[in-house]
Design a protein that fits this description.
Layout lengths: L4 E4 L2 H12 L4 H15 L9 E7 L5 E6 L16 E6 L4 E6 L9 H12 L4 H14 L1 E2 L2 H9 L1 H4 L3 H7 L12 E2 L2 H13 L8 H11 L6 H6 L3 E3 L2 E5 L2 E5 L6 H11 L6 H18 L6 H7 L1 H11 L3 E2 L3 E7 L5 E7 L7 E2 L4 E2 L24 E2 L4 E4 L5 E7 L4 H15 L3 H6 L3 E6 L10 E7 L4 H10 L4 E3 L8 E7 L5 E4 L7 E4 L1
Parallel strand pairs: 11-16, 20-21
Antiparallel strand pairs: 1-12, 1-24, 2-3, 2-13, 3-8, 4-5, 6-7, 9-10, 10-17, 12-13, 14-15, 17-18, 18-22, 19-20, 22-23
Length: about 525
């Protein structure tokens, strides 16, 4: 019988966590090792200068959430002094503008967060945890087809500077292709320094100084911001679905709240059209919470207090893109779910680290009040929703997803399948999904907003027909897509047996032993 399990967004990421678990490490050791490896194996989604959230359920049953997401700097430069450049990403059927440059860099929290979690719940030394990541970065890994697809989308960012091109263009100009081996000796050196000198190097040492210097030419971030950053332990948001108890990402982030709301609105054993209606209400509630007086349509459904809470969360600066996820459970029953992000990267590589700094302050659609609409020295909110589920018999699951705004839809549908139907993890993760936004019809931005529905075209024929009858403009996707998120999950039952499932939509991998 397997005693531990890990699920992640890349085989090398999962293997790094499994190495720690095989050596007797805790679930926290596993996600720390895996997160460091993700910086080498998934460099377009994870980075040492990003942030994340860790949902943790101890073997004793105590649950907590670690917020190690990015923080806004304590100063804001005048507009004329900022290095902030607009680039356009090509998503195939749509194009989207992002802002990069030094002024897009927020105060990172990932390394301080991993250090905090390790200090409390780790068993293994940093040198051992960082070993697989150092090897992967130094020797290089074959670039996966998924990573190559992501690289094509954000190509303008990865070509923005000579240092960025050196990372992602083997010949200096041509983007890396699937199958090419990309080594990153500078990242290996930075990870080795972290392993031997400790995480304070990223807040007060040479690496912190290098990041502050990178941001000094037109950026808001300073060395004082890095030194002052602290991860925050929070009480999880609690909800229920059938017999399952859910421990979700709490305020100030929005992801857990929206997942809980979707699960409240969707009936037990919901069909495709049930999910479309529930997620349409969630999307509408989020959109109308941003509009003064626009909450009347959802007020009766949610209640005045909840509408006020949703509005307060919706107007906070948020960051959601470029995400990956790691879930692990160990032999003691400790379960951990870590969602992490580096945004798309700001185009600037921090010297000596082989790592692009984040661009969390450079995405206009993630700052509801505009690029200037953030308050100094404030933790950014997020759509990330790492989650722990528990059952009365002692079973525990840890899961999470990447996928921007689609995280709420992916997580709600996977959780419901586990809670309502008792499905195996792999079935719950592989099941077809849909997503709803509140938006004007395509091509007519002046038309009234309504539900904009996308769905994977694998629902049973009767459910598909009902969905299209209720929402004729719903768009079927003939193939599964990373658009619909990437849920990676582990579960340990009351007898101690474990299982794991990783989402093929985002190149997932699992290991159990």
């Amino acid at each position: 019988m397997s005693r531990f399990a890990i699920a992640a967004g890349h085989a090398a990421t999962a293997e790094a966590g499994a190495v720690a678990l095989r050596a007797g490490g805790s679930a926290v050791d596993a996600v720390v090792a895996a997160a460091l490896a993700a910086c080498a194996a998934e460099p377009l989604l994870a980075g040492l200068f990003g942030g994340g959230f860790l949902a943790l359920r101890e073997a004793s049953g105590r649950a907590r959430m670690l917020d190690c997401f990015v923080q806004t700097p304590r100063r804001r430069l005048p507009e004329h002094a900022r290095d902030l450049r607009e680039v356009e990403a090509d998503f195939g059927g749509a194009r989207q503008s992002f802002h990069i440059g030094a002024a897009a860099i927020a105060t990172p929290g990932l390394v301080p967060g991993l250090a905090e979690a390790h200090a409390r719940f780790g068993r293994m030394p940093w040198r051992e945890l960082a070993g697989p990541a150092i090897e992967a970065a130094g020797k290089g890994l074959p670039f996966s087809a998924f990573q190559a697809d992501v690289l094509q989308v954000i190509a303008p960012i990865c070509r923005a500077t000579p240092a960025a091109r050196a990372l992602f263009c083997p010949d200096g100009e041509t983007l890396a292709r699937a199958g090419e081996t990309l080594a990153n000796p500078a990242l290996a050196d930075a990870l080795d320094a972290l392993a031997h000198e400790g995480p304070r190097l990223f807040q007060e040492g040479e690496i912190a100084a290098a990041l502050a210097e990178t941001a000094s030419a037109g950026g808001h971030l300073t060395a004082a911001d890095l030194a002052a950053y602290r991860p925050l332990w929070r009480e999880p948001l609690q909800a229920e679905r059938g017999a399952a108890r859910l421990l979700l990402n709490p305020e100030p982030s929005l992801g857990g709240t929206l997942v809980a709301l979707a699960l409240r609105l969707a009936p037990t054993d919901a069909s495709a059209v049930d999910w479309a209606r529930a997620l349409a209400l969630v999307a509408r509630a989020r959109a109308e919470a941003l509009e003064a007086g626009g909450e009347a349509a959802v007020l009766a459904l949610l209640g005045e207090a909840e509408v006020e809470r949703l509005r307060a969360l919706a107007v906070r600066a948020q960051s959601v893109r470029g995400t990956t996820h790691i879930s692990a459970v160990d032999a003691s029953g400790m379960a951990a779910a870590l969602t992490l992000s580096n945004g798309e990267g700001c185009g600037l590589v921090v010297p000596g680290t082989g790592t692009m700094a984040n661009n969390m302050l450079g995405e206009a659609d993630l700052l509801p009040l505009g690029l200037d609409g953030w308050s100094p020295d404030t933790r950014l909110a997020s759509m990330m929703a790492p989650t722990v589920m528990t059952w009365p018999d002692g079973s525990v699951a840890a899961l999470g997803s990447g996928g921007s705004n689609r995280i709420r839809s992916a997580m709600a549908q996977a959780i419901a399948r586990l809670a309502d139907r008792g499905e195996a993890l792999d079935r719950a993760v592989a099941a077809p999904r849909l997503h709803v936004e509140h938006a004007p019809p395509p091509g007519d931005p002046d038309a009234p907003a309504g539900p904009s529905i996308d769905f994977e075209d694998r629902f049973p024929e009767s459910e598909r027909a009902d969905l299209l009858r209720a929402f004729p403009a719903a768009r079927p996707w003939p193939q599964d897509s990373l658009f619909f998120g990437g849920v990676h999950a582990v579960r340990r039952n009351a007898r101690g047996a474990v299982e794991a499932a990783a989402d093929s939509r985002r190149d997932g991998a699992v290991l159990t032993a």
